[in-house]
Design brief:
heterodimer; A: mainly alpha; 8 helices; globular; B: about 300 residues
C-alpha cells in the first residue's frame, strides 16, 4: 500500500517541477488541475475504511480543484485577453533548479524528523513540504495575478497532502472548510483579475505598487 | 546459446523496423498512409548499392566515424540484456563500459563532422556534445539507482532486478528514473521535442546536420547505427518500466518484441502531439531529466 502511495506522491513531485518549468499559463493551470485530481484519488486510497462522507469530500475535492477552479481561471484568462506567456522574475531553468533544491531539502529535512513509524517510509511529509515550497516559489517569482493564484493553489495542495497525515484525526468539516475557502478565494481573484485588467490593461502585479486616483 | 543467437539476430534485424513503426504512427496521426513499414530496410539497401562521394578536405577520420560509431553501438547492444534474457557479454562493471561505448560513438560522430571543416557540421557537433553533457549524467544517475536497488554491478543483474526481484516499495525511484530515461531516449535519438529527424534546415538540426557530408554506404551505416541506438535505449527503458513476462522462453521473446514496438508507437505519439522545443529550451528539458534521475537516487539514499 505504501508503495502505491509513494508512486503517486512521486508523480505529484514531478508535476511540481513541470509547473515550475512550463512557460504557458494554460499548461500551468492544467498541471495544477491534474495535481488536484491526483490528490483527490490519493485521499480516496488513504482512508482505511471508506465512509460515504469521506468519499463525498474526496469527490468534491476532485470536482472543485480539478474542474471548477481551472474552468473559472481559464474563463478569466479568456476574458482578460492577456498574453499566454508567463514572464517570470527568474528563468524557467533557475525556477526548476530552485524547485529541485527545495525538493531535495524537503526529502533530507523530513528524514531528520521524528515521525510516527507508520509514516516513516512514506513520502507524505517530503511531498507536502516540497509542494508548499514550490507553491512559495511560484507565488514569489511570477508577476501575473493569475499565475500567483496558481502558486496559491500549489501551496494549498501541499497543505492538503500534509492533512492526509492526520486523516484519522482531522474532521471532514475542516477539509470542506478549506475547499470552500479555496473556491471562494479563486472566484474572487478571478473577478479581481478582470478589474485589474480593465484598470491597467495588464495583469502585471508590479503595477499595483503605485497608488493613484 | 539459443537465447544469445536470438539476441544477436534481433539486435541486427529489428532496429530499422522501429523507425518504420514510428513513421507509421506519425502518418496515422496526420491522416496519411505513410511510407511502408519496411521502408527503412529499403533505404538501407538502396544506400548500400550507391557509390560514395568523399570531400577532398576530409581525412580517414571522416570515413572511420560512421564505422567506429556502428561498432561501438553494436558492442553496447551485446551488453544490454533484452527482455527476460541475459546479455551475451556480461562482467562486473559493464555499465561503465556501456556508457563509455556510447561516449566513444558520439566522439567519433562529432569528430567526423568536424573533419569536414563545414561550419554547419561544426555547429551540429557543438550542439550534440552540449546536450550530451546533460543527458550522460542522467544515464549515470539512472544506472546508479538501478545498481543500488539490485546490488549488482553488471547490466544484466541490475536490469533484471526491476523485473522480478524488486518489491513494489521501490516504485517511487523507478518512476522518476523511467521519466528521466524516456527524455534521454528522445534526446539521444534526436526525436521531436529535442530534434526533428525530418527537418533539413541546418539552423535547427542537431544530429542530421552532422551527417550532411556522408553519402552512400557510409550514410547507410549512420542510419543503421542510429536505429540500433534507439533499439538499445528502448530495451533499457523497458527494463525500468518493469514489464510483463511469462516465464516461457518463446513467449518472452514475443512479449519483448511487442513491448519494443509499443515503445516505438509511444515515441511516434510523442512526436505527433508535441512541437519541437526552441533550441534554448532544450537544456531545460534535459536538466529536468537529470533532476528526475538524481531525485530517484536521492530517494534511495536518504
Amino acid at each position: 500500500m505504501t508503495s502505491l502511495f509513494n508512486g503517486l506522491l512521486v508523480i505529484v513531485l514531478v508535476m511540481n517541477l513541470f509547473a515550475l518549468g512550463t512557460s504557458r499559463i494554460h499548461a500551468l493551470i492544467r498541471i495544477v488541475a491534474s495535481q488536484g485530481v491526483l490528490l483527490g484519488i490519493i485521499l480516496l486510497l488513504v482512508h482505511r475504511h471508506l465512509t460515504i462522507p469521506a468519499f463525498a469530500v474526496a469527490m468534491a475535492g476532485i470536482a472543485i480543484k480539478g474542474f471548477l477552479i481551472p474552468a473559472i481561471m481559464l474563463r478569466a484568462l479568456r476574458q482578460a485577453e492577456i498574453k499566454r506567456e508567463i514572464e517570470p522574475l527568474i528563468s524557467p531553468l533557475a525556477s526548476i533548479m530552485l524547485g529541485a533544491i527545495a525538493t531535495a531539502f524537503a526529502i533530507l529535512f523530513s528524514g531528520q524528523l521524528p515521525l510516527v513509524d507508520q509514516n516513516d517510509g512514506a513520502l507524505l511529509v517530503p511531498t507536502a513540504i516540497a509542494t508548499v515550497l514550490v507553491g512559495f516559489i511560484i507565488l514569489t517569482t511570477r508577476f501575473k495575478a493569475l499565475t500567483q493564484v496558481v502558486g496559491y493553489l500549489v501551496l494549498e495542495n501541499g497543505i492538503f497532502v500534509f492533512g492526509m497525515l492526520l486523516i484519522e484525526a482531522m474532521p471532514l468539516v475542516v477539509e470542506m472548510g478549506v475547499l470552500l475557502d479555496l473556491f471562494v478565494g479563486v472566484f474572487v481573484i478571478s473577478i479581481i483579475v478582470n478589474h485589474i485588467n480593465r484598470a491597467f490593461s495588464s495583469l502585471d502585479t508590479r503595477r499595483l505598487l503605485l497608488l493613484k486616483e | 546459446m539459443t537465447a544469445n543467437l536470438i539476441h544477436v539476430l534481433l539486435l541486427l534485424v529489428m532496429p530499422p523496423l522501429l523507425a518504420g513503426v514510428i513513421n507509421k504512427t506519425k502518418a496515422w496521426f496526420g491522416g496519411r498512409v505513410g511510407p511502408p513499414l519496411l521502408q527503412s530496410y529499403y533505404d538501407l539497401i538502396k544506400l548500400a548499392r550507391k557509390s560514395m562521394v568523399l570531400s577532398t578536405t576530409t581525412t580517414w577520420v571522416f570515413r572511420a566515424g560512421p564505422v567506429v560509431t556502428l561498432a561501438a553501438v553494436l558492442m553496447a547492444g551485446l551488453l544490454m540484456p533484452l527482455g527476460a534474457f541475459d546479455a551475451p557479454i556480461r562482467f562486473s562493471g559493464d555499465p561503465i563500459f556501456f556508457a563509455y561505448l556510447l561516449g566513444l560513438a558520439r566522439f567519433f560522430t562529432t569528430t567526423a563532422a568536424l573533419d569536414t571543416g563545414s561550419a554547419f557540421e561544426g555547429m551540429g557537433a557543438a550542439r550534440e556534445v552540449t546536450f550530451a553533457s546533460l543527458s550522460e549524467p542522467a544515464v549515470f544517475f539512472a544506472l546508479l539507482v538501478l545498481a543500488r536497488l539490485s546490488g549488482s554491478l553488471t547490466l544484466t543483474g541490475m536490469l533484471h532486478g526491476p523485473m522480478g526481484g524488486f518489491s513494489a516499495a521501490t516504485a517511487a525511484p523507478l518512476i522518476l528514473v523511467a521519466i528521466g530515461l524516456f527524455v534521454v531516449l528522445l534526446a539521444e535519438n534526436c526525436r521531436i521535442p529535442v530534434d526533428d529527424p525530418n527537418t533539413h534546415l541546418e539552423l535547427t538540426m542537431i544530429h542530421e546536420v552532422m551527417v550532411l557530408d556522408h553519402s552512400g554506404p557510409l550514410l547507410g551505416v549512420i542510419l543503421y547505427g542510429a536505429a540500433l541506438k534507439l533499439f538499445i535505449f528502448g530495451a533499457l527503458l523497458l527494463h525500468v518500466l518493469a514489464p510483463f513476462q511469462t516465464g516461457v522462453a518463446w513467449a518472452d521473446w514475443l512479449v519483448f518484441c511487442a513491448e519494443m514496438l509499443a515503445v516505438a508507437v509511444a515515441i511516434g505519439v510523442v512526436e505527433s502531439i508535441m512541437a519541437r522545443l526552441l533550441m534554448r529550451r532544450v537544456p531545460y528539458l534535459l536538466t529536468g531529466a537529470l533532476l528526475f534521475c538524481g531525485f530517484g537516487f536521492l530517494l534511495l539514499v536518504r
